[in-house]
Amino acid sequence: MVAPGGCQDARRPAARNVSQKLTASPPRVKHDGVERDDSIAWILPFGLLVLAVVAVPLLILSEQGLPRYRALREEYGNLEVENDELRDEVRSLARETEALRNDLATLERIARDELGMVREGEIVFQF
Description:
- This protein has helices at residues 18-23, 43-61, 66-102, 104-115; strands at residues 28-31, 34-37.
- It is built from 4 helices and 2 strands, in the order H-E-E-H-H-H.
C-alpha cells in the first residue's frame, strides 16, 4: 500500500509483477535438514521409470531372457520324462537282480539263454 506522499508502507513488501511470479525460481524446500530445489526432485524417479521401461523389455526379449527361460523350461520337462524312464529301468534292474540272487530258475534261464550252458547229459539241438 502506498502511503500519502508516494512512499510504500514499510510494513508490506512491494507487490511482485505477474511476470516475476512466473519466472521466479521455485521455492527451496528443506527435507531432512537438506535444502534442495523442488524442480529437480522428480528427475531421479522419472529417470528410473524411463530406465525400467526401456531395460525390462530388452532384458526379457534378449537371448538370455524369455526365450532362454522357455528353452530351459522345455529342457526341464524333457529331463523329468527321462528321469522317470530311468527310475523305471532302475526298478526293473533291481527286480532282476533280486531274482538272480534268490530264484534258481531265473539263474538257470539266464545261464542257458545268454551263456549257452547245458546240464550234464543234455543234448542240444541247433537249427
